[in-house]
Design brief:
The complex is a heterodimer of chains A (465) and B (505).
Chain A lengths: L3 E8 L5 H11 L3 E5 L5 H6 L1 H18 L15 H25 L3 E4 L1 E6 L2 E6 L2 E12 L3 E3 L12 E2 L1 H4 L8 E5 L3 H13 L2 E5 L11 H13 L3 E3 L3 E6 L5 E7 L2 E7 L1 E4 L3 E3 L13 E2 L2 E2 L12 E3 L10 H16 L14 E3 L4 E6 L2 H6 L4 E7 L4 H5 L6 E7 L5 E8 L2 H13 L4 H6 L9 H10 L7
Parallel strand pairs in A: 1-2, 1-6, 2-3, 6-19, 8-15, 9-10, 9-15, 10-11
Antiparallel strand pairs in A: 4-5, 5-6, 7-16, 12-13, 13-14, 17-18, 20-21, 21-24, 22-23, 23-24
Helix pairs in contact in A: 1-8, 3-4, 3-6
Chain B lengths: L4 E5 L9 E7 L6 E2 L4 E6 L4 E5 L4 E6 L6 E3 L3 E6 L5 H12 L22 H4 L13 H7 L11 H10 L17 H10 L28 H10 L17 H13 L29 H15 L2 E9 L1 H13 L7 H15 L5 E3 L4 E3 L5 E3 L1 E3 L2 E3 L2 E2 L7 H17 L4 H4 L4 E5 L18 E5 L3 E7 L2 E15 L5 H16 L2 H4 L1
Parallel strand pairs in B: 12-16, 16-17
Antiparallel strand pairs in B: 1-8, 2-4, 2-7, 3-6, 4-5, 6-8, 9-19, 10-11, 12-15, 13-14, 17-19, 18-19
The chains are: A alpha/beta (465), B alpha+beta (505).
Chain lengths: 465, 505
Amino acid sequence: MSMQQFDLMVVGGGPGGYVAAIRAAQLGFKTALVEKEHLGGVCLNWGCIPTKALLRGADIAHTLKEAEHFGFAFDNLSFDIKKLVQHSRSVASKLTHGVAYLMQKNGVTVIDGSASLADKCLLNVEHEGKITQYKATHIILATGARARNLPSIEIDGHRVWGAREAMTPTALPRKLLVIGGGAIGVEFASLYNDLGTDVTLVEAEQRITPAEDADISALAEKAFKQRGIKILTNSVVQSLDTSGSESVALISGPDGEQHLEFDQVILAVGITGNIENLGLESLKVETEKGFLQADGFGKTNLTGLYAIGDVAGPPWLAHKASHEAVICVEKIAGVDGVKPLNKDQVPGCTYCRPQIASVGLTEAQAKAAGHTVRVGRFNLNANGKALAINEAEGLVKTVFDQNSGELLGAHMIGPEVTEQIQGFGIAQQLEATEHELAQSIFAHPTVSESMHESVLDSLGIAIHQ
Amino acid sequence: MTDQITPINMPKWGMEMSEGDINTWYFAVGDQVNAGDDLVDIETSKIINTVTASDGGILRAIIGAQGETHAVGALLGVLASADVSDADIQAFIASNTSAAPEPEAAPEPVAASLVAAADPLETKAAPLVTEAAQPSNNLSKLAEGEDDSQVAASPVARRLAAEYGVNLNNISGTGRHDRVSKRDLEAAVLSAGGRLIGNSIDKSAGTTQFGDDSNVKATPVARRMADQLGINLLECRVSGDRGRVCKADVEAVAALKNKMSAPAGSHIAGIGGGIDGGNTVESQPISGMRKTIAARLQASKQTAPHFRVHIDAEIDALLDVRKQINSSNTDAKVSVNDFIIKACASALMKVPAINVQFDGEQLSYFSNADISVAVAIDDGLITPIVTSANHKGLVEISNTTRDLATRAKLGRLKPEEFQGGSFCISNLGMYGIKQFDAIINPPQGAILAVGAGEQRPVVKEGLLAVATVMSLSLSSDHRVIDGAVAAEFLSVLKGYLEQPATMLG
């Protein structure tokens, strides 16, 4: 039998890979997708979606806690974390089947196995000990990334959880240490705190969510502390002793060193690309710090090889991977008007309570880039809807270029801001200035009216503050 | 009722055709038309071709008047027998024009007049572009000259010339019978620094002026930025979505102005470029790939006496070089065929008598090697062109070919990427074919057929040895290419293939 040949093959079935395969099939490529585990990748199986299912449980716990404020009283309240995890897993499984259906519907050949490059335009796929070779004119690597370990602390799946274990607990931890105050760390801190766990969050930088605007970080820290989450910034876990019944962490910070005891630890200190065992070294494919190097359309230095999504570097977000998938394939196909990824237009969302969402440059980044900025701020405690739903803690901050009026960045913290950030994203994509935004009519009463007020504030004409 | 009425619609010639200009009607309303009669000439940016009547009847109405532009599929006219009432004709027109989904169809609602097409020049009001406040020197030169009414020009070109204020005496015609075509006119306007009138521009407005950029579509940020930087939006290329000038376009002009204190005119406008390599080519229309293949190959065999010469080339040295190139360059995956393209380009420069097109009357010599490469696709075959292959390196040829082949399979080639070419290569080596002869791709003068490279016994200095040998066959049009020339070409080609360093130098 002669070797099977495809116009385009994708390695990895996550939100980068499966989207690339669908778009390629739509354009007429004879397309195959190689996946070693589950279609849908980390996002659908062990990331974005199952954690959102769990966080919905946290929201309900929070709502029940404040029910009294709205006049409700009840007792005999019980909670079974296994049922919440079951809900989360069933959502993941449903979506995985959805992806399999989409592959079939679009005529994408799905190949089970682990792929590696045998040569330019040549893939070895190993499945159950058997290696099959495939030829493809274009190969897209979308192998994703995994949690990083620390030199002194490694995920053991038992005393030290990675994200995967942290979203499939069989019992609720009593005292939890979350190492890493980025998006993943704060989401788990928020989740377990709402479910009743005593949570300590350690971050090496001087503030949690260090990638966000400083004003947002400050508000998030304040809200977290009010909820009873202990936050240690500028702090590092030097060592972790898991030999006893409790794990003992040695944490050094501005106030010196301290020994603290926990029954559970979550490690969330960043991720590293899945670049191993792909045959990259022998073909001299360029990588840097654990990630593949690619241009704005995903093209690597090797003929016919492309990289998209987490494995191609930050920001490590599913929607960035999907967008890269589309532009990479369309560029190969010669579709008119394809534009390279603009990382300043990739929104980022963190689903802690209160939620955080942002797009574009922070105020500090904008200034560092040489912009003369015009900044607007609006606090949600002056927003009627936010007060009505008793979620008035939050801020909308907008950063404009003083001269051109370009919306450089928007930063939000508050209820459901992850659903609102798209408004600013669209404005940015359309190159709207603060005047177009100011002239837009925002519906009342909504939390998103604060977006409007923030823009008005940048012009010094906010109405409600 | 409608089965007695035959619509005449705008045809679709080629994948990229979305609209056409009405050039000449051969009949007036009321004339009897027989099936097969030439009805109307349609001009696109590429070709002029004639729509013939599929049925007989009386031409009852002309909707697409001479000089107008209509979308593919739009109703242009109506044929029907005499006993169909005018009311029925009107109803048919109404139902077929209002339902037309093409937004680019005629800008004004189509007044289905039953009179013969009026001269469009008389009914048009103000010109679309008035050369305003500061017309550039070059543009005003285009307007000068004596009465141009006797200049041979297509009706569309004549109408556009009036709209642009261009005197046709200043345009050299390259259209059919050396007439000034729409393309000639637009090229002249562009090269003089002018801007093309897009079909999307409201033709009744006619106020766009150099100097006043208020009508230019631009994003809010771009407009503000241009205003602050003192940049006229008309100076900017248009790369934003839906034809809007965007921030990057303004920045590009700003960057350019910073580099050159005196920007030369406004020809940064990014509409198209020059024609690659300067090879002038009269393209052929295609209507259905298979139909085209059939017609062309049949015509080729019937009109061009094929003269074939064969030669074998040893390619062991070439395979070694290929291995070296591919292992030392991550960005290269050069195939044997890429070497053949490069070798042919070099050989065509050495033997230019092969690098020709012949249309039966005129023999055109090409200065560059525009090499068509046959690519098998699902529903037939297409020959994308590696333009100016003589100026390209092996890796560039390889990457160009990969891109062309990828898009050929997706049906995403532009007409200019597969129409033309000065020479053709057909390679069936990947199928293990040892040797074959190919049919010339007219109006090209010759085609090379390439077989598989395979190990064969060869005799060297009286001793039997093994070499990797490839059989090549050149089919040439014997009307214009003599046997000795064809033989010389193959022998030069063999030399390049056997000593690849000589073509890479």
